[in-house]
């Protein structure tokens, strides 16, 4: 019996229980066999998150704070730092199911405007007992198996306020399908670019979680 194991970071994996019933002459014998499939468990690594233009730090932190970054090469990746400090980026890790592991990243872009750009990097770690593969990313409840449209290199557009116009694009280094053995970690990073249709001076909040799958069950659904 193949039981597909899929897990959001931090959610306890199920242990499959196979009940085998054996019938014998005039009596029934039930045999309970517990098949331990191992635990699929991973999480964001606390303290591993770094990002551009962090809110709340005093001037002088240079690269990580202060003047805003502008997506000057859009739709190509990359940005230039401006000589003004208007917006800022805030990133928090959340433990939404209370199991002690961070499973969700909350990104807030404060007082931002078109072509505001930020870059966020972090580590994930395989805390479980079986190898896993990074399967998909869930952003504001929508699952993505790919976040790069390589032809145009602009990433995936997100409509955060539901007005039908994209407000932000996400582009990340391609770690989908990467295999993590137990105790291994991987670096992940992504870019966010605010688009023309975003409301002026907006505060945009994005919830991101990554989902892993048992290494031998990895697939990408056909669109
Ligand atoms: Ca800033
Ligand atoms: Ca958790
Ligand atoms: Ca919108």
Question: In short, what is this structure?
Answer:
The chain has strands at residues 6-8, 17-24, 27-34, 42-44, 50-51, 69-70, 80-81, 88-94, 104-112, 116-126, 132-139, 142-144, 156-158, 168-172, 179-180, 185-194, 202-214. With 223 residues, the chain is mostly beta strands. The site of one calcium ion (CA) has 6 residues, from loops.
Task: Please explain how this structure is put together.
It is a single chain. The chain has one domain (42-217). With 223 residues, it is mainly β. Strands 4, 5, 6, 7, 10, 13, 14 and 16 form an 8-stranded antiparallel β-sheet that branches. Strands 1, 8, 9, 11, 12, 15 and 17 form a 7-stranded antiparallel β-sheet that branches. The two termini are 28 Å apart. It is built from no helices and 17 strands. Residues 9-30 have low confidence and may be disordered. The structure holds calcium ion (3 copies).
Largest sheet: 8 strands, antiparallel
The helix content, as a percent range, equals under 10%
Poorly predicted runs of 5 or more residues: 9-30
Number of separate helices: 0
Overall mean pLDDT stands at 78
Q: Count the strands?
A: 17
Total separate domains: 1
| Bound heterogens, unique | calcium ion
Shape assignment:
globular
Proportion of strand residues: 35-45%
Order of helices and strands: EEEEEEEEEEEEEEEEE
SS content category: mainly beta
Q: If you compute it from the alpha carbons, what radius of gyration comes out, rounded to the nearest whole angstrom? A: 21 Å
In angstroms, what separates the terminal alpha carbons?
28 Å
């Amino acid at each position: 019996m193949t039981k597909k194991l899929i897990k959001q970071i931090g959610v306890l994996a199920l242990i499959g229980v196979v009940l085998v019933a054996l019938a014998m002459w005039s009596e029934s014998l039930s045999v309970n066999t517990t098949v331990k499939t191992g635990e699929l468990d991973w999480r964001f690594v606390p303290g591993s998150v770094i990002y551009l233009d962090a809110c709340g730090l005093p001037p002088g932190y240079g690269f990580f704070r202060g003047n805003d970054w502008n997506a000057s090469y859009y739709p190509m990746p990359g940005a230039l730092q401006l000589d003004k400090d208007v917006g800022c980026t805030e990133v928090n890790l959340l433990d939404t199911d209370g199991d002690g592991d961070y499973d969700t990243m909350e990104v807030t872009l404060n007082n931002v405007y078109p072509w505001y750009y930020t870059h966020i990097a972090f580590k994930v770690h395989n805390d479980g007992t079986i190898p896993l593969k990074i399967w998909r990313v869930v952003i504001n409840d929508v699952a993505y198996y790919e976040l790069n449209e390589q032809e145009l290199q602009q990433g995936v557009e997100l409509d955060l306020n539901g007005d039908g116009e994209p407000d932000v694009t996400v582009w990340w280094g391609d770690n989908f399908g990467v295999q993590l053995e137990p105790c291994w970690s991987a670096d992940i990073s992504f870019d966010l670019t605010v688009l023309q249709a975003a409301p002026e001076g907006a505060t945009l909040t994005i919830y991101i979680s990554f989902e892993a799958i048992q290494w031998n069950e990895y697939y990408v659904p056909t669109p």
